[in-house]
Amino acid sequence: MSTAVEVRPALLGQLKELRLPTVRQCYEETARRAERETLSYERYLLEVITRECEQRRKTRVERLLRESELPLEKSLPNFDVKRLPAKAQRQLRTLLEGDFLNRRENVLVFGRPGSGKSHLLTALAQELIVMRERRMHFTKCSLLMQDLLAAKRDLRLSREIKRLGRFEGLIIDDLGYIQQSRDDMEVVFTLLAERYERGSVLMTSNLAFSKWEGIFKDAMMTAAAIDRLVHHSVIIELNIPSYREEEAKKKQQAEGQTDAPGDGASGSSSG
Fold this sequence. Notes:
Layout: H1 2-17, H2 21-36, H3 41-68, H4 86-95, H5 99-102, E1 106-111, H6 117-132, E2 136-140, H7 141-153, H8 157-164, E3 169-173, H9 182-195, E4 200-205, H10 213-216, H11 219-230, E5 233-238, H12 243-270
Parallel strand pairs: 1-4, 1-5, 2-3, 3-4
């Protein structure tokens, strides 16, 4: 008995030193079950190590999701993939494998407001984090520009770009949605130039390339930005109606159908 008492604190201490908190929590309960079920030493060891690995993976995914700053409500289960054009559905299935991140390829999604561009990229990024533990980061273009301008003002622009460079995929949502000055967009162009062939950019815009000069306010900067983004890229076009408009129409139709019997009844009674 005294030997058992001495073993436990020694084992707990060594598991703590090895940074195996889950094994520390579960080894005794698992040992009792292994004894009842006459598990082999190897099977017992596999059980406790598997629990440790599973907990570590869960912790990593939770950290990656926090760092990503993704709107987590825009997930793949909440996205109506069937609304996408057939080509876009095939592209999404391929992107979910995550190989484009290894090749530093960009993903550019175009479509009218409400077509699901942001939801598509957000859902894709969440799946890549949860299923493949890839490092992703989400930002609105307007907020990104503000952060970069503040970094430039404080003489730490290169440090901020380096920080964003830690992410394998950088999602820039709504490029061109809010008009900015040429000087403001210069910092965004600097980021795009630094990430070229170093990390993937995933971008949404409701403006075709032909209208991008209105975003960057300079023909040469526009051409250079497009060239860097399009080289090694996947372009997804969502030529579909606005999801919000469709939902509003469905709601109106449902309300109309609900009101129709009532209207008939009131007309009959008044007659």
